[in-house]
Amino acid sequence: MSAKQAIDLKKTAIDWLGITPFLIFAVMFLIAPTLYLVTGAFVNPAGEFTFDNVAGLFTDKILASYWISIKISLASSIGGAFIGFFLAWAVVLGGLPSWIRSSLLTFSGVASNFAGVPLAFAFLATLGRTGLVTMLLRDWFGINLYASGFNLLSFVGLTLTYMYFQIPLMVLIITPALDGLKKEWREAAEILGATNTQYWTKVALPLLFPSILGTTLLLFANAFGAIATAYSLTGSTFNIVPIQLYAQIRGDVLHNPNLGYALALGMIVITGISNLIYIWLRMRAERWQK
């Protein structure tokens, strides 16, 4: 072996050593648990192979759980993408002071990870029946949210709660795509006589569409797998898939771990498809912007 080959081999070994902690982490907390769930979905409590657990996913109650989870995920992802896009547009292309951009991105980095019990408590303290905003609207403006039909512990309330972390996540992901719009493209469009509307409809939005759609799918997957916020806010009364899964694996009444594994398998398939489409659209968007 030559000296150059020995140096290259040593460098390769050091490179693999650097990535080893990540590989160990991925195997222990992602790959191995996923394989365990997939395997458990196709066996019964006695350890025998069966399709009964997967067939159980097509009962009315579980299909209803998937449907309500899909609706909440769609509503929060579309709403979060819409509002988040215009927030990002305002700070990137709207001519606002630079400190507003840095402040918004810093807040978005924190808010996109703010979920679970703290987020549920924050919304109960703000928009609950005796929440601060609820009381202010009633006492100062004569608006009674709950008398008009609003309920935080409902589809609309849970969707609003999810949008708290969906909007900042959209801001963080779509901002680089907006930064990637070159000034030369707008200048070329203006030289050719295009109006601002024509520039956005014919040039900018077609270029941004893969990024927007891909990020919306990522937000969908993000909401579909959320459990801590929903469980802390609504308890077991709101029948979304993660809560149904928790009830099957840990519950005293609906205790069927293998059916819970099948529920998890269904969630993996749905979120996996969303993430794969997001990755494909992101690669497509990056190629277009180059």
UniProtKB/TrEMBL annotation:
Membrane-topology annotation of the record: Multi-pass membrane protein
UniProt KW keywords: Cell membrane, Membrane, Transmembrane, Transmembrane helix, Transport
Signal peptide: none
Lineage: superkingdom: Bacteria
Location in the cell: Cell membrane
UniProt GO BP: transmembrane transport
Membrane-spanning segments: 21-43, 63-92, 104-125, 145-165, 207-231, 259-281
Domain ABC transmembrane type-1: 66-278
Similarity comment: family membership: Belongs to the binding-protein-dependent transport system permease family. CysTW subfamily.
Protein name: Acriflavin resistance protein
Species, as recorded: Pararhizobium polonicum
Upper classification of the organism: Bacteria, Pseudomonadati, Pseudomonadota, Alphaproteobacteria, Hyphomicrobiales
